[in-house]
Amino acid sequence: xxxxxxxxxxxxxxxxxxxxxxxxxxxxxxxxxxxxxxxxxxxxxxxxxxxxxxxxxxxxxxxxxxxxxxxxxxxxxxxxxxxxxxxxxxxxxxxxxxxxxxxxxxxxxxxxxxxxxxxxxxxxxxxxxxxx
Length: 132
Description:
This protein has about 130 residues and is an alpha+beta fold. It has helices at about 20-35, 35-45, 70-85, 120; strands at about 5-10, 15-20, 50-55, 60-65, 90, 95, 105, 125, 130.
């Protein structure tokens, strides 16, 4: 069985950091298997903006946004998670995990499709003269 790893994202530092507390890691994974809707609340209560879980047995990344995280935070966390899922992350032990592993987003994000820009989403119509 592969080991499970948990990383939290904090927008102030703009990076995912490893969670060393095994009880906290197990709590995240128990919510993942039992009741995924609680993950967003638990992430928010623990003070993180997003959580990235890696299950070594399934070789899969799972991204969860904390309840109440904003669109900019979600976009930035998603970009960081995409990068980690492609290149992996090197642990303190020197082991690299998660390279080329699929990334699954569990939260209902506000990000939308890449074709939707902020202007298309929030402004009714713009032209060279401004907003109509």
